[in-house]
Amino acid sequence: MAKKKTEVKIELVDMLQRLKTLREDKNIKEEHLAEELGIDAETYADKEKGDIQFSLKEWLVMSNIMNVRLFYFLTGNSQ
Question: Could you say which of 36, 55, 74, 77 has the lowest number of CB atoms within 10 Å?
Fold first, then answer.
Protein backbone atom coordinates (compact mmCIF):
# COMPACT_ATOMS: atom_id res chain seq x y z
CA MET A 1 0.00 0.00 0.00
CA ALA A 2 1.44 3.38 -1.01
CA LYS A 3 1.83 6.03 1.63
CA LYS A 4 -0.22 9.15 1.16
CA LYS A 5 1.86 12.31 0.92
CA THR A 6 1.18 15.00 3.47
CA GLU A 7 0.93 18.36 1.77
CA VAL A 8 2.11 21.40 3.68
CA LYS A 9 1.24 24.76 2.24
CA ILE A 10 3.46 27.56 3.48
CA GLU A 11 2.25 31.09 2.93
CA LEU A 12 4.59 34.02 3.47
CA VAL A 13 1.72 36.14 4.79
CA ASP A 14 1.12 33.54 7.52
CA MET A 15 4.80 33.45 8.43
CA LEU A 16 4.89 37.25 8.73
CA GLN A 17 1.75 37.28 10.88
CA ARG A 18 3.28 34.67 13.20
CA LEU A 19 6.44 36.76 13.41
CA LYS A 20 4.56 39.96 14.27
CA THR A 21 2.28 38.24 16.79
CA LEU A 22 5.16 36.50 18.53
CA ARG A 23 7.26 39.67 18.56
CA GLU A 24 4.41 41.61 20.16
CA ASP A 25 3.62 38.79 22.63
CA LYS A 26 7.25 38.81 23.76
CA ASN A 27 7.32 42.62 23.93
CA ILE A 28 10.17 42.83 21.44
CA LYS A 29 10.37 46.11 19.54
CA GLU A 30 10.93 46.24 15.79
CA GLU A 31 13.96 48.42 16.51
CA HIS A 32 15.55 45.66 18.61
CA LEU A 33 15.16 43.04 15.90
CA ALA A 34 16.41 45.52 13.30
CA GLU A 35 19.54 46.15 15.37
CA GLU A 36 20.14 42.41 15.84
CA LEU A 37 19.75 41.87 12.09
CA GLY A 38 22.06 44.77 11.25
CA ILE A 39 19.40 46.72 9.36
CA ASP A 40 17.59 49.98 10.05
CA ALA A 41 14.15 50.02 11.64
CA GLU A 42 12.41 51.21 8.47
CA THR A 43 13.82 48.30 6.47
CA TYR A 44 12.76 45.90 9.22
CA ALA A 45 9.22 47.31 9.15
CA ASP A 46 9.11 46.89 5.36
CA LYS A 47 10.24 43.28 5.74
CA GLU A 48 7.68 42.51 8.44
CA LYS A 49 4.95 43.94 6.17
CA GLY A 50 6.16 41.74 3.31
CA ASP A 51 7.40 44.56 1.08
CA ILE A 52 10.94 43.12 1.23
CA GLN A 53 11.77 39.48 1.91
CA PHE A 54 13.70 38.29 4.96
CA SER A 55 16.67 36.08 4.16
CA LEU A 56 16.88 32.59 5.61
CA LYS A 57 19.70 33.79 7.87
CA GLU A 58 17.44 36.59 9.19
CA TRP A 59 14.65 34.09 9.94
CA LEU A 60 17.17 31.95 11.84
CA VAL A 61 18.45 34.92 13.84
CA MET A 62 14.90 35.96 14.75
CA SER A 63 13.95 32.43 15.77
CA ASN A 64 16.97 32.34 18.09
CA ILE A 65 16.13 35.74 19.60
CA MET A 66 12.52 34.72 20.18
CA ASN A 67 13.50 31.26 21.42
CA VAL A 68 11.41 29.32 18.91
CA ARG A 69 12.32 26.86 16.18
CA LEU A 70 12.26 28.11 12.61
CA PHE A 71 9.57 25.47 12.08
CA TYR A 72 7.19 27.63 14.14
CA PHE A 73 7.24 30.44 11.58
CA LEU A 74 6.74 27.97 8.75
CA THR A 75 3.83 26.03 10.25
CA GLY A 76 2.60 27.72 13.41
CA ASN A 77 3.39 24.52 15.27
CA SER A 78 5.84 24.90 18.15
CA GLN A 79 6.62 21.16 18.24
Answer: 77
Does the pLDDT of residue 3 top 90, yes or no? Answer: no
> What is the spatial distance between Cα 5 and Cα 51, in angstroms, rounded to a whole number?
33
- Measured distance CA(34)–CA(21) in Å, rounded: 16
By three-state DSSP, how is residue 3 classified? coil
The answer to whether the beta carbons of residues 3 and 68 sit under 8 Å apart is no
73 to 2, 24, 40: CA distances (angstroms): 30, 14, 22
Alpha helices per DSSP H over 1-79: 12-25, 30-37, 41-49, 56-65, 70-75
> According to the model, what pLDDT value does residue 18 have?
97
Instruction: Kindly report, residue by residue over 63-76, the tens digit of the pLDDT.
Output: 999 999 999 999 99
